[in-house]
Specification:
The protein is of the alpha/beta class. It has 2 domains: about 5-160, Rossmann fold (3-Layer(aba) Sandwich), CATH 3.40.50.620; about 185-315, Riboflavin kinase-like (Elongation Factor Tu (Ef-tu), domain 3). About 30% of the residues lie in helices and about 30% in strands. It has 10 helices and 14 strands. It has helices at about 30-45, 55-60, 75-80, 95-100, 100-110, 135-145, 165-170, 175-180, 200, 285-305, and strands at about 5, 15-20, 45-55, 85-90, 115-120, 145-150, 155, 160, 185-195, 205-210, 220-230, 230-240, 255-260, 270-280. The strands form 3 sheets. Strands 1-4-3-2-5-6 form a 6-stranded parallel β-sheet, with helices on both faces. A hairpin with a 2-residue loop joins strand 11 (about 220-230) and strand 12. Helix 7 (about 165-170) packs antiparallel against helix 8 (about 175-180). The chain starts with a strand and ends in an 11-residue tail after the last helix.
């Protein structure tokens, strides 16, 4: 079972092999790196650990206030709990940490951890403005008897898999491509809140969710989704957008019509996985046209989802 720590821990008794990074989304490149780390740690007789950061360094250094994250903190922890790592250390990222050189950061690592190995990809850099190159890191590791393990960048279609590629796919509404890069469907996990009951008035009660304001949402539109809560797994149709037929607000809503389900799940944690884009967001002139479209969306979602396997690791 993975143990999670906020900030630097006291010196651990375990000799550690670690990796360092942001790991937003925990995509297939991250997964390959963690598998390599666990193999490295096993070979060295060490525990495996991740050093990661919150907020994301780009959010701090580039003053990002809009949607950016693929995983909010709770979602990231859910994925990491399934990773097989022994420890995850989340450091608060601030200007003081950003100004450390690679050597200064390693000094902190050695002060707090019994560090024996470091696994990184070949494009890794560390320290202020990423000035600590791989060669500099190699030198620091040699000076401190740390075994450096460097793996090739994980690629699909001849290009590195990155959080940026996933963001681009989501912004285009291509949740299939996002899932291919992630190795799992893009998902939202948050509590169901009481909405304006617009769906109920039409005969289609929906589960409304409020997500972290900095979490990226797929392009506005309607999606075939899988949903889960308390171990129950359901098909769904999820709308992401501003409800142009009724409100046309500036604040995005996420609401899911759960198929073959009519219980009250207010205040429950609901996980929604985006499987396929059905259509864009439409402003209907007549409510009857919207009702007809929702029925069509339900049929199409059911057709798609009947042949989709459920991601067990996201339903925890």
């Amino acid at each position: 079972m993975t143990e999670f720590f906020e900030n630097w821990p006291a010196l651990t008794k375990d000799p550690l092999c670690i990796t360092i990074g942001n790991f937003d989304g925990l995509h297939r490149g991250h997964q390959a790196l963690l598998k390599r780390l666990e193999e490295h740690a096993a070979n060295e007789g060490c525990a495996s650990a991740m050093i990661t950061f919150q907020p994301h360094p780009r959010v701090v250094l580039q003053h990002i206030s809009g949607r950016f994250y693929l995983t909010c903190e709770e979602e990231k922890r859910l994925l990491l709990a399934q990773s097989g790592l022994d420890f995850v250390f989340t450091l608060p990222f601030n200007r003081a940490l950003a100004n450390l050189s690679a050597g200064q950061f390693f000094a902190l690592l050695l002060e707090h951890l019994d560090l024996r190995g470091l696994t990184v990809s070949e494009n890794f850099a560390l320290g202020k403005a990423r000035s600590g190159t791989l060669e500099q890191i190699r030198t620091v590791c040699e000076q401190n008897n740390i075994i450096l393990d460097v793996m090739p960048v994980f690629c699909l279609d001849g290009k590195p898999v990155s959080s940026g590629r996933v963001r681009e796919a989501l912004e285009a509404g291509d949740v299939r491509e996002a899932a291919r890069l992630l190795g799992h469907p893009y998902f939202v996990k948050s509590k169901v809140v009481v909405g304006k009951r617009l769906g109920s008035k039409l005969g289609f009660p929906t589960a409304n969710q409020v997500v972290d304001p900095q979490k990226i949402l797929p392009k506005y539109g309607v999606y075939a989704t899988r949903a889960s809560f308390n171990g129950e797994k359901l098909m769904g149709v999820t709308s992401v957008g501003v409800r142009p037929t009724f409100e046309n607000t500036t604040k995005a809503n996420i609401e899911t019509l759960l198929l073959d389900f009519d219980d009250n799940i207010y205040h429950e944690d609901l996980t929604v996985e985006f499987i396929e884009h059905l259509r864009g967001e439409i402003k209907f002139e007549h409510v009857e046209d919207l009702i007809q479209q929702i029925e069509q969306d339900k049929r199409e979602a059911r057709r798609i989802l009947t042949h989709e396997s459920f991601q067990e690791n996201l339903s925890a």
